[in-house]
Every structure is written in C-alpha cells, then in structure tokens.
From TrEMBL:
Record protein name field: Phosphosugar-binding protein
PROSITE patterns referenced in this protein's UniProt entry, alphabetically: SIS
Pfam families: SIS_2
Membrane-traversing stretches: none
Top-level taxon of origin: Bacteria
Ranges where the SIS domain occurs: 32-206
NCBIfam families assigned: PRK02947.1 (NF002805)
SUPFAM superfamilies: SIS domain (SSF53697)
Length: 241
C-alpha cells in the first residue's frame, strides 16, 4: 500500500467523523457560545493519551481562551506509564479533582476518552452533571461497547452531547485487516475539537458574540492581544499563570 493510499484512509475517517457528528458539532458550539455569553469557563479533561486532546484545547494559538484544563499529574503516562493506567481506573479520584475546582451551572465540561469506561472520566462527567454543568463526551461508541466496564455507567451515558470519533476498539488503524499500529484517536479528537471551534466562530459572527481566541506569540500583535486575555482569565485559570 502506498503512502497516498494510507493517507486516504485517514482522510476517510476524518470525513466520516465530520459527517456523522454534524448536528452534535453545532449543538456543542451552541453550548460553548452560551458559556462565553455567561462569561464562564469550558473545562476540558482526559487521562492517559487523551490528555493530548486537553493540551490541544489549552493556551493554543487559535484556541479558545476561556478553557480550564482539568489535570492530575498521576494521569500522565510521562510521570509513570503503568501508574497512569491504574490511576485512571481508581474510583474516587474524579471527586478529589472536582473538590479543588468544579464546573458550575454556567460552565461546560468536555471529556476526551476513547474507551469511556474507566472510573475517572465517567465519574468526572457524573460529578459535573451533579453540579449542574453540561458535559460533552468525545468518545467512540464502538470502543465503549467493546471495552470491559469498570464503572457504574459509561462516559457516553453521562454526557449531554456525544461526539463519536468512531475509533476502532484498541485504537489502532493499520493494517486495515488486522490493525495493530497507527492509532487515530489523537488525530480525530483534535479534528473534532477544531470543527467545534470553527462552528463557534461562525455562530459568534452571526449572533454578534466576540469569541476569545489566543493569538500566536510569534506574530505581530500576538503578545498584546494575549495580554488582554490573560488579564481576563488568569485569575480564574491557575494554569495560565
């Protein structure tokens, strides 16, 4: 198989994700627009390699400025790979994290988890809903169905809106007849998030809502534009300091 054919396969997966989530992307953008109108925050969370999607949402050129990344160091594989897996499976951690700072009724929680069955993402979503926040799950229905259940419910069951990545169980995509490499969840998660942001910008323009977006620090005027956003959100988002 040529490189062109391999890339075409990825492009087909992205197109499928966009096509099948069109309504959910708009609904997600409407929720985010409501957060901006309320001068509230979009909380983003994940564990393991789903933290790559959280990094994509936070303090990123072209990204949304009103983002609060939910983070616990033991969930990052770079701080201990095996331990990060055990931590995601530990019931009660989500409530510990939410006790420090939790989304409220005007806020929104976005949880990235392809399998969507481990206690941390599931309990995080449930805890946010209990506090009155809406929840967007970026997950894979096929992966959730195939994964062993480790919590009372699943992330998909706890979410207000589900963006389905359609990632195969196990995440690998290549070779097609017996996938064992080329995981796609990180690529599709970022793609879906950026589709939502594009919709937010379009809806904001149509409805006269100014969308707070970061500029690159390496373009003229970037530092100045970002300084205003840091002044606005820095006190509420400790990770911006």
């Amino acid at each position: 198989m040529s490189t062109t054919e391999r890339c075409a396969g990825v492009a087909e997966r992205l197109a499928e994700a966009e096509r099948s989530n069109a309504e959910q992307i708009r609904e997600s953008a409407e929720l985010i627009l409501g957060v901006i109108r309320a001068d509230a925050l979009v909380f983003t969370a994940g564990a393991g390699h789903s933290l790559a999607a959280v990094a994509e949402t936070f303090y990123r050129a072209g990204g949304l400025a009103c983002v609060y990344p939910v983070y616990h160091p033991e969930l990052l594989p770079l701080h201990g790979a095996q331990h990060s897996t055990k931590t995601e499976r530990r019931s009660g951690l989500a409530e510990e994290v939410l006790a420090e700072r939790a989304p409220g009724p005007d806020d929104l929680l976005v949880v990235f988890s392809t399998s969507g069955v481990n206690p941390y993402p599931v309990e995080l979503a449930a805890g946010a809903r209990k506090r009155g926040a809406s929840v967007i799950a970026v997950s894979s229905a096929a992966s959730v169905a195939a994964a062993p259940k480790r919590a009372a419910t699943t992330l998909i069951e706890e979410a207000s809106i589900v963006l389905d990545s359609h990632v195969r169980p196990g995440d690998a995509s290549y070779p097609a007849d017996a996938p064992r490499t080329a995981p796609l969840s990180t690529v599709i998660n970022a793609f879906l998030w950026n589709l939502v942001l594009a919709e937010v910008v379009d809806l904001g323009a149509a409805q006269g809502v100014d969308i707070p977006l970061w500029r690159s620090s390496n373009v003229d005027g970037g530092d100045e534009a970002n300084a205003a956003l840091l002044a606005k959100y820095g006190a509420r988002v400790p990770a911006l300091r």
